């Protein structure tokens, strides 16, 4: 999955999605391990199974992603029902269906615009 594909998913999603969460998690370094019919996730910093963050549902976890990837940039966001905006650093505002999706979209957009997609990994 490319950063651009994740951006498109974040932009078009109408609600939180564990599939989007998984795509973001894999992109930023979580490892997906299939053990028979069961899937476990390993965080980039450990070897113990963990749950992937709820990036597309949780404002806190989306903000944590922004802070981890762009620690010197401020993130601003606002929302009303079914419409949210977010901005990271000096980049333009982006819009999505909820604040968490908008924040994640701002993170991936900032990385793409700065041509620093490796900052996400």
Textual characterization of the structure:
- The protein is of the alpha+beta class and 121 residues long.
- The protein has one domain (3-120): Bacillus phage protein, CATH 3.30.2120.
- It has helices spanning 3-12, 18-27, 59-69, 99-113; strands spanning 31-35, 38-42, 49-50, 75-80, 83-88, 94-96.
- The strands form two sheets. The chain has a three-stranded antiparallel sheet with strand order 1-2-3, with no helix packed on it.
- Strand 5 (83-88) and strand 6 (94-96) form a beta hairpin.
- Helix 1 (3-12) runs antiparallel to helix 4 (99-113) and helix 3 (59-69) runs parallel beside helix 4 (99-113).
- The longest helix is centred in the C-terminal third of the chain and has 15 residues, at 99-113.
- It is globular.
- The model has no long low-confidence stretch (mean pLDDT 92).
Beta content: 15-25%
What is the name of the CATH class?
Alpha Beta
Label the overall shape: globular
CATH architecture: 2-Layer Sandwich
Domain count: the total is 1
Mean pLDDT: 92
CATH topology: Bacillus phage protein
The total count of strands amounts to 6
Helix-and-strand structural type: alpha+beta
Radius of gyration: 14 Å
In which range does the helix fraction lie? 25-40%
Order of secondary-structure elements = HHEEEHEEEH
Count of separate DSSP helical elements: 4
Main-sheet strand order equals: 1-2-3
Low-confidence stretches: none
Q: Give the N-terminus to C-terminus distance in angstroms.
A: 13 Å
Let me know the largest β-sheet.
Answer: 3 strands, antiparallel
